Amino acid sequence: MKYWRLKISLFINYFLFAMLLNSVGTVILQVQSSFGVLASEAGILEAFKDLSIAITSFFIASSIHRLGYKNAMLLALGLVTLACLAMPLLHTFWMTKVLFATTGISFALIKVSVYATIGMVTTDEAEHISVMNFIESFFMIGILTGYFIFSYFIDDSGRASLAWTQVYYLLAFLASVAFLLLWSTPLAHTAQTSAENNPSSFAEMFRLAIVPIVLVFVASAFIYVLIEQSIMSWLPTFNSQVLRLPATLSVQMASILAASTALGRFVAGILLRKIQWIYVLIACIVLAGGLVMVALPLAQNSSAVAITGWSNAPVVAFVFPLIGLLIAPIYPAINSTILSALPKAQHGMMSGLIVIFSALGGTTGSLITGNIFEHFGGQTAFYFSLLPMGILIVLLLKFYKLQQKHH
Q: Contact 264/141 with Cβ under 8 angstroms?
């Protein structure tokens, strides 16, 4: 219980940023009616979020230790609090751009710092993996909760209402609570320790990236996020175009994926304290591949009856999203394993590499799946996930061997 305030703050951080980062689709819809912008103009909000994450991660990964992980998280929470407070006051399209750019910059600071900080508040590899899974599960819970919180503030009357911007007062409150919890936690020594003992640079970060165990890890992380984002980004479209669900129901039922992923990471946080991570992850991938083979054929047998709600939705709409339960433990487990294998002084740089290659994997997966979806159909696009799953099994086995040698 020594770091209970810090751990609660980390959980709130991930919960908060999950809602902010995954609200882009909702906000794109709202700014078109509230601010009168075209769909093509509204679509740029995605770039403000993603590019700010990638660029910030690249530049701060090798030097964040000079600022200190605690200070970096406090800076991020402070920026987000101000941006969230400004959004309902200024309520303009340019402020929305600023909001997502600030969110992206802040999330990069948070994620790199959180991953590095976990090593300071855990005592061994098993506890590290467990805490990592619990924190990542809070991210998925945040995504799930965000759907309902944002929808509560949306005015369905069809008028150009600004009521949805009031949600940012609630998010500002959460950010300020996390700020105060973190600020009151004694962790100031991290900045001096890192800065004095571990001068680093971009060159050092690249040298770290070509260490064999790190090289195999980043390939594993890239492939995993490719799988996850290709499914998460295109599941609503699959529900709509393949299963022929109404658009609203397609989005709502996609929340099953977020819920199952959160549950999977929560359960993994318990299991991985007792079972070697490689056995759990290989079993998860094999079962996920089996679910793809079993669930997707059900899409061909979906009812021709008009679907009006959850009660008469096809079985596949409930079954396929459960893949989140199976692939959920992979990402936090491998992240924790690589961080546990490296000196704590290198956790900041390694965390930066995790964020960068995760962003690249997510973008690549979404683009590949989109192209397959367009030219060959939704079922083929999701069958494609079997290929990276096979590659991931090979990479994880290699990663495990290198980890054993590293120990």
A: no
Q: How far is CA 280 from the centre of its chain?
A: 21
Please state the rounded mean pLDDT for residues 350-365.
77
Extract the tokens encoding 286.
């094999």
Q: Report the chain's C-alpha Rg in angstroms.
A: 21
Cα angle 89-94-99, degrees, rounded to a multiple of 5: 70
- Angle (nearest 5°) at CA 102 between 96 and 108: 140
Which DSSP letter does residue 241 get? I
The top-scoring range by mean pLDDT among 122-126, 142-146, 148-152, 338-342 is 142-146
H helix or E strand, kind and range, residue 104: helix 93-121
Largest CA distance in the chain: 68
- Hey, what amino acid is at 249? L
pTM of the model: 0.70
Q: Is 19 helix (H, G, I), strand (E, B) or coil?
A: helix
Helix, strand, coil shares, percent, the chain, to 5 = 85, 0, 15
Whether residue 189 has pLDDT greater than 50: no
Domains and CATH numbers, the chain: 1-199 (1.20.1250.20), 200-407 (1.20.1250.20)
Among the listed ranges 1-15, 138-152, 269-283, 356-370, which one has the minimum average pLDDT value?
1-15
Q: Which residues contact 9 (CB under 8 A, 6 or more apart)?
A: 73, 178, 181, 182, 185
Instruction: Return all residues near 400 (Cβ < 8 A) that are at least 6 apart.
Output: 278
Q: Taking the mean position of all CA atoms in its chain, how far away is CA 136?
A: 8
| pLDDT value for 197 | 43
CA distance 296 to 316: 7
Report the sign of the C-alpha dihedral through residues 271, 275, 277, 282, in that order. Answer: negative
